[in-house]
Amino acid sequence: MSEIRVDTISEKTSANGVAIDSVTLKDGNVVVANGNGISFAATSDGTTMSSELLDDYEEGSATISITDTSDNAISLGNNTLSYTKVGRMVHTHGYFNCSGLGSASGDLKITGLPFAIPNENSAYASPSVGWAFGLNITAGQNMGGYGAINTSDIQLTIYDSTGGITNFNTTQLSADGQFMISFSYRTAA
Hints:
By secondary structure, the protein is mainly β.
Protein backbone atom coordinates (compact mmCIF):
# COMPACT_ATOMS: atom_id res chain seq x y z
CA MET A 1 0.00 0.00 0.00
CA SER A 2 1.41 3.37 -0.95
CA GLU A 3 1.07 6.46 1.18
CA ILE A 4 0.95 10.12 0.22
CA ARG A 5 1.88 12.70 2.81
CA VAL A 6 0.92 16.28 2.14
CA ASP A 7 1.83 19.19 4.35
CA THR A 8 0.03 21.82 2.27
CA ILE A 9 -2.71 21.62 -0.34
CA SER A 10 -3.05 24.54 -2.71
CA GLU A 11 -6.38 25.25 -4.37
CA LYS A 12 -6.28 24.78 -8.10
CA THR A 13 -9.16 26.10 -10.18
CA SER A 14 -10.35 23.74 -12.88
CA ALA A 15 -13.57 23.13 -14.74
CA ASN A 16 -13.41 19.49 -13.66
CA GLY A 17 -12.50 20.07 -10.01
CA VAL A 18 -10.35 17.53 -8.21
CA ALA A 19 -10.92 13.78 -8.56
CA ILE A 20 -9.95 11.61 -5.61
CA ASP A 21 -10.80 7.92 -5.40
CA SER A 22 -11.13 7.90 -1.60
CA VAL A 23 -10.15 9.92 1.43
CA THR A 24 -9.59 8.75 4.98
CA LEU A 25 -9.37 11.30 7.76
CA LYS A 26 -7.36 10.13 10.74
CA ASP A 27 -8.46 13.10 12.82
CA GLY A 28 -10.67 16.16 12.49
CA ASN A 29 -13.95 16.91 10.72
CA VAL A 30 -15.10 17.57 7.20
CA VAL A 31 -16.50 21.10 7.10
CA VAL A 32 -18.75 22.05 4.22
CA ALA A 33 -19.33 25.71 3.34
CA ASN A 34 -22.75 27.15 4.17
CA GLY A 35 -25.31 26.34 1.46
CA ASN A 36 -23.39 23.28 0.26
CA GLY A 37 -23.52 19.63 1.19
CA ILE A 38 -22.98 16.08 -0.01
CA SER A 39 -24.43 15.52 -3.46
CA PHE A 40 -25.96 12.17 -4.41
CA ALA A 41 -26.77 13.35 -7.96
CA ALA A 42 -24.92 10.39 -9.47
CA THR A 43 -27.82 8.16 -8.37
CA SER A 44 -30.85 9.96 -9.80
CA ASP A 45 -33.63 7.61 -8.71
CA GLY A 46 -36.92 9.51 -8.56
CA THR A 47 -38.74 11.25 -11.36
CA THR A 48 -40.27 13.84 -9.03
CA MET A 49 -37.34 14.48 -6.70
CA SER A 50 -36.50 18.02 -5.73
CA SER A 51 -32.97 17.56 -4.35
CA GLU A 52 -30.18 15.04 -3.93
CA LEU A 53 -28.13 17.27 -1.66
CA LEU A 54 -27.64 16.36 2.00
CA ASP A 55 -26.93 19.78 3.48
CA ASP A 56 -27.85 19.59 7.16
CA TYR A 57 -27.35 17.39 10.22
CA GLU A 58 -28.12 18.40 13.78
CA GLU A 59 -28.77 16.81 17.16
CA GLY A 60 -30.31 18.53 20.15
CA SER A 61 -33.24 18.93 22.48
CA ALA A 62 -36.27 21.19 22.60
CA THR A 63 -38.30 22.35 25.58
CA ILE A 64 -41.94 21.65 24.85
CA SER A 65 -45.25 22.56 26.47
CA ILE A 66 -48.61 20.86 26.49
CA THR A 67 -51.25 23.57 26.15
CA ASP A 68 -54.93 24.04 25.49
CA THR A 69 -56.26 26.15 22.61
CA SER A 70 -55.89 29.32 24.76
CA ASP A 71 -52.20 28.48 25.42
CA ASN A 72 -52.79 27.60 29.10
CA ALA A 73 -49.99 25.14 29.90
CA ILE A 74 -50.13 21.90 31.86
CA SER A 75 -47.43 21.55 34.52
CA LEU A 76 -44.86 19.00 33.39
CA GLY A 77 -42.25 17.18 35.44
CA ASN A 78 -40.33 16.39 32.25
CA ASN A 79 -40.68 18.55 29.15
CA THR A 80 -37.65 17.78 27.00
CA LEU A 81 -37.92 16.37 23.50
CA SER A 82 -34.72 15.00 21.90
CA TYR A 83 -34.29 15.34 18.15
CA THR A 84 -32.03 14.48 15.24
CA LYS A 85 -32.37 16.43 11.98
CA VAL A 86 -31.01 14.88 8.79
CA GLY A 87 -31.59 17.09 5.78
CA ARG A 88 -35.23 18.17 5.99
CA MET A 89 -36.34 15.19 8.15
CA VAL A 90 -36.65 15.67 11.90
CA HIS A 91 -36.86 12.63 14.19
CA THR A 92 -38.03 13.35 17.73
CA HIS A 93 -38.77 11.36 20.88
CA GLY A 94 -39.62 12.18 24.45
CA TYR A 95 -41.23 11.18 27.73
CA PHE A 96 -43.67 13.57 29.39
CA ASN A 97 -45.16 13.37 32.87
CA CYS A 98 -47.75 15.78 34.20
CA SER A 99 -47.46 17.28 37.65
CA GLY A 100 -50.77 19.18 37.46
CA LEU A 101 -53.35 20.37 34.94
CA GLY A 102 -53.21 24.03 36.03
CA SER A 103 -55.87 26.16 34.34
CA ALA A 104 -55.79 24.20 31.08
CA SER A 105 -59.15 23.07 29.72
CA GLY A 106 -60.37 21.68 26.45
CA ASP A 107 -58.31 20.25 23.58
CA LEU A 108 -54.58 19.68 24.11
CA LYS A 109 -51.55 20.01 21.87
CA ILE A 110 -47.78 19.70 22.20
CA THR A 111 -46.06 22.99 21.31
CA GLY A 112 -42.40 23.84 20.81
CA LEU A 113 -41.18 21.36 18.18
CA PRO A 114 -37.60 22.29 17.21
CA PHE A 115 -38.55 23.16 13.61
CA ALA A 116 -41.81 24.28 12.01
CA ILE A 117 -43.86 21.96 9.83
CA PRO A 118 -44.30 23.54 6.36
CA ASN A 119 -47.68 24.74 5.12
CA GLU A 120 -48.14 21.87 2.65
CA ASN A 121 -50.63 19.00 2.74
CA SER A 122 -47.79 16.58 1.98
CA ALA A 123 -46.14 17.61 5.29
CA TYR A 124 -48.79 16.04 7.55
CA ALA A 125 -47.31 13.31 9.77
CA SER A 126 -48.57 11.27 12.73
CA PRO A 127 -46.71 10.59 15.97
CA SER A 128 -46.52 7.23 17.66
CA VAL A 129 -47.51 7.03 21.32
CA GLY A 130 -45.85 3.82 22.49
CA TRP A 131 -46.76 3.97 26.18
CA ALA A 132 -49.14 5.96 28.37
CA PHE A 133 -50.21 5.97 32.02
CA GLY A 134 -52.80 7.92 33.99
CA LEU A 135 -55.14 8.67 31.10
CA ASN A 136 -58.90 8.85 31.65
CA ILE A 137 -59.79 6.86 28.55
CA THR A 138 -61.65 3.59 28.10
CA ALA A 139 -60.43 0.29 26.74
CA GLY A 140 -60.23 0.38 22.96
CA GLN A 141 -59.24 4.04 22.79
CA ASN A 142 -55.72 4.97 21.67
CA MET A 143 -53.83 8.22 22.01
CA GLY A 144 -52.31 9.68 18.85
CA GLY A 145 -52.12 12.94 16.98
CA TYR A 146 -50.84 14.75 13.92
CA GLY A 147 -48.32 17.45 13.16
CA ALA A 148 -50.32 20.59 12.45
CA ILE A 149 -49.01 22.15 9.23
CA ASN A 150 -47.63 25.70 9.36
CA THR A 151 -46.93 25.33 13.12
CA SER A 152 -44.45 23.75 15.53
CA ASP A 153 -47.29 21.77 17.18
CA ILE A 154 -48.63 18.25 17.49
CA GLN A 155 -52.41 18.19 17.86
CA LEU A 156 -53.15 15.31 20.26
CA THR A 157 -56.05 12.98 19.41
CA ILE A 158 -57.87 9.91 20.67
CA TYR A 159 -58.89 7.14 18.30
CA ASP A 160 -61.88 5.01 19.22
CA SER A 161 -62.88 2.08 16.99
CA THR A 162 -66.55 3.04 17.32
CA GLY A 163 -66.35 6.84 17.68
CA GLY A 164 -63.51 7.61 15.27
CA ILE A 165 -60.94 10.34 15.94
CA THR A 166 -61.53 13.21 18.36
CA ASN A 167 -59.16 15.74 19.90
CA PHE A 168 -57.49 14.66 23.15
CA ASN A 169 -58.55 16.99 25.97
CA THR A 170 -57.96 17.73 29.65
CA THR A 171 -60.81 15.44 30.78
CA GLN A 172 -58.84 12.51 29.33
CA LEU A 173 -55.58 13.39 31.11
CA SER A 174 -55.11 13.01 34.85
CA ALA A 175 -52.91 15.32 36.95
CA ASP A 176 -50.23 12.56 36.99
CA GLY A 177 -50.66 11.38 33.38
CA GLN A 178 -47.59 10.23 31.45
CA PHE A 179 -46.78 9.21 27.89
CA MET A 180 -43.89 8.51 25.52
CA ILE A 181 -43.97 9.81 21.97
CA SER A 182 -41.94 9.43 18.78
CA PHE A 183 -42.54 11.75 15.85
CA SER A 184 -40.81 12.06 12.47
CA TYR A 185 -41.74 14.94 10.23
CA ARG A 186 -40.49 17.08 7.37
CA THR A 187 -39.50 20.70 7.84
CA ALA A 188 -39.19 23.47 5.28
CA ALA A 189 -35.42 23.90 5.63
